[in-house]
Structures are given as C-alpha cells and as structure tokens.
Amino acid sequence: MNAPVALAPELLTQLTAIVGENRIKTDADSLQNWGRDHTKHFDPNPSVIVFPSSTEQVQAIVKLANQFHVAITPSGGRTGLSAGAVASNGEIVLSLDKMNQVLDFLPADRMVRIQAGMVTEQLQDYAEAQGMYYPVDFASAGSSQLGGNIGTNAGGIKVIKYGMTRNWILGLTVVTGKGDILRLNKGMIKNATGYAMQHLFIGAEGTLGIVTEADIKLERQPHDLQVLVLGVPDFAAVMPVLHAFQSKIDLTAFEFFGELAMQKVLDNGHVQRPFASECPFYVLLEFEAPYEPILDAAMEIFEHCMEQGWVLDGVMSQSLEQAQSLWRLREDISESIAPFIPYKNDISVLISHVPAFIADIEAIVEQNYPDFEICWFGHIGDGNLHLNILKPANLSKDEFFEKCQQVNTYVFDIVKKYDGSISAEHGVGMTKKPYLGYSRSAEEIEYMRALKQVFDPNGIMNPGKLFDLKA
Q1: Kindly report the CA angle at 439 between 436 and 444, in degrees rounded to 5?
Q2: Distance (Å) of CA 382 to CA 9, 239, 348
Q3: Is 239 inside a domain boundary?
C-alpha cells in the first residue's frame, strides 16, 4: 500500500470551508474505502474525500482544484469494474453520496429530476411509487449511483427492449473541468438548437466534468412479466433460440450463462437448479404476457426449439416468486464468482456477428486458458458477452492478471475483426485504457483528447482514465 499523499494545509482549510468539517475525511480507512471501486488491479491512494451537497459546492471544489493544480476523481457507488473511480495518485475524491435527492417530478413529461448521487434502486423505487418504471437494471442497482451509471453509459439486463442509460437521459446539469455550471438540454424531448452536449458527458467517465443532476425519462410499468430458463446444448443454439422468440414476441430480456456460472450460484445455497438436466449453457428470457395468446405463442416457440434440438430442457415461471428466483440464477453470478478474483472482459459486437464471434473467442480461450475456469455470461440478446477467467488458488493476483493481460490482445484482435467494443457497458477506466485503440481509431481518440482540452484545460478531471492526455 502506498503512503497517503500529503495535502497542502491551505487546500484542506478551503475545502473544509466549502463543505464543513463533517464532510471531509482524511483517515486511512476512509481513503481506502472511497478511493477504490470493485477492481483489484490498482491500489487506492487519494489525499482527501469530500462530500458536497449541492452543484454550487461541487463548482467551488473544482475551481479550488484548478487553483491548486490537484486532480479530482468523482466517486459514486464505487461498483465499477474498470478502475474508473480509483484514485491512485493523491487525488481529491469527490463523493456524491450526500447528493441523493429527488428534485422535481413532472408527470405530464414522464420525467424526474434527481441528484446524481441517487442510488439506482432508489430511483426505481421512486418511479414505482409514482406508478411508473425506470428500466435500466443490473446486479449492482442496490448500490450503484446514477452519476456513475451516466459516466459509463450503464446497460444491464433490459437493454434488448429499453436500451442503455443514454436512452433515458433528457438533460444534465454538469460542472465542467473549468468549473462552469452547464444545464444541458433542460429535459426537453425536442430541442434542435445545436450540439447535444449532454451526450458528451454520458460515457465520459468523469473526464470532462462532474454530473450533479439529471433529468430522467420514465416509462409505464410492464405487466405480467414471465420468465423462461432454457438449457441449450452449445453456443450455436443460442442465437436460433433468440431469433425464434423475437420473431413472435417482444422480449424485455434475453440473458445467457454457462453451467459453471450456474454452479457457482447454486453453491451459495440461495436458489435451486431450475430443472434436473445439467446443460452446457442456459438462456433466460423475459417478456410481458398480459394476454393468454402471448403465453400460448411462447409455449409453441419453446416446443419448436425442442424439436430443432436447440433446447434440451426448460421451465417457465408460475408465480412472481418463482420469476424472481429464476432471475437470481443470472443476477447472482457476479457476486458468486467475486471471491475467485475474476479477470473480466466485457465485449460486444453486432448481434449478426455473435455466432462467428463466439466461435473465434472460444477457440482463443481454449488455446490460452486450458487450465483456468472460464465463466461465461452476458446480455447476449444485445450482442454483449462477459468473459470471466477465475483465478486458480496456486497463482498470486499479480501472476494471474499478467497471464490474462497477455491474452487480452488475442481477444481484442477478434473484437476488432468484427468492429466490436472492448467495453460494452463497464467503461474503459484504467484497466481497458491500453486497448482503446482496438475499438476507436487514432483520429477518434485525438478528437476525444481535443474535447477534454475544451472542457478540462488543466487536465484535473479524473486523469489517467479512458486515455492519456498525450499519445
């Protein structure tokens, strides 16, 4: 562990004046806790944690950081998987934990204005209390914050129907790296007045500025959701099953996982195997079925898939409780494999390329990781796969990560071959930064650097993430 970075006494005094003594932390435990995310690759080493409660306080902190030439790392729920929120070089960690309120609700616009520190599940619960629905959902919804979701353009389990976080942002209030407050788009659906700058901050991982408030679009609540878990014989069967169901039914989710992932979840003892058959792979489908003909169609498709040999066994939820239990088979995977210190790849391609892409990736994995446990799962209905390599007990963390990083280039060569993404929904941060060129051209990266220079001319906003300031 690195020694804490000393903070200039005058800077600490002025930070305290902005937020108050009870909103500053410099003790070792706090620096470790708020200076990290869920990655294990980098050791946190911030200088101070500050907890502003308003956009104006955030602005004052950013201006102070510019004055003292000290970097800022924005911090939300710290559930990230790319080291995008790790403060490893004496940064000020600006936590949005205290900015978690609903600011306004406009039912006619189906819009809620929130502070960016609101936890994702808190927004989901608020929407439900208004008889509405916020559909962006994932395993960390109970602790991730909306600001972090926006910073990484989070996706999750409902993207096949509802899209990414970007689809639900109607406007943003941001504090730029220069310390300016911008109110972008102001919640409007229709606004043809030049550049839609709010979209620059979605997926920017805090490198342009800090999102402090967001105008969030809401949706009607889904009705009579049904869940199917199907066992399939191999990768090749997954896409025909998807196409068969999508041709007749509007799916709200189509998830995928392997038998190893299933076993890790079952080992925790919270859920049971959905049916007796052990299958190499599984898909989980969800759809609305408010009318009997939709259920009939689903059963007909299931029987057709069985006849074609694409499905070996399956079960449909018969109650809300059973539907939730079936979902846990998928949603509990990340938590279940966490003790094995997984090396995560979060990759995506066009759905049309998925079968060939998977075949190529599987060949690379079998050739280079013959002795490692490989845990496959993902949102395959939108072309997103999570490839998790589990650390063997006989390897140190550093030895394990080094081995995985050696093979990254082979995996990302395949991603580039299919014009895919090296990070579908987890962001780039520091862990994927060396590989950004596999998904973005040199020209694109130069334009991104130029944009950062405009919004953050002193380079204080989350430096070292996404790309380096100089090529």
Answers
A1: 80
A2: 50, 11, 8
A3: yes
433 belongs to a structural domain: no
Read off the tokens for 371: 């002795």
Taking only the tens place, the pLDDT of each residue in 79-118 is 888 899 999 999 999 999 999 999 999 999 999 999 999 9
Residue 452, judged by CB atoms within 10 A of its CB (0-12, 13-18, 19+), counts as buried
**Helix residue ranges per DSSP H, 309-353:** 320-331, 333-337
Q: List the structure tokens of 171.
A: 């406007």
Q: What is the predicted pLDDT for the residue at 5?
A: 66
Give the torsion through C-alpha atoms of 332, 159, 97, 51, to 10 deg: 130
Q: Is 40 left (phi over 0), alpha (psi -120 to 50) or beta?
A: alpha
Residues 171 and 260 in one domain: no
Contact 211, 116 (CB under 8 A): yes
Here the CATH number for the domain that contains residue 184 is 3.30.465.10
Report field, pTM of the whole predicted structure over 0.90: yes
Confirm whether 291 is domain-assigned: yes
What is the helix (H) or strand (E) element at residue 17, kind and residue range? helix 9-19
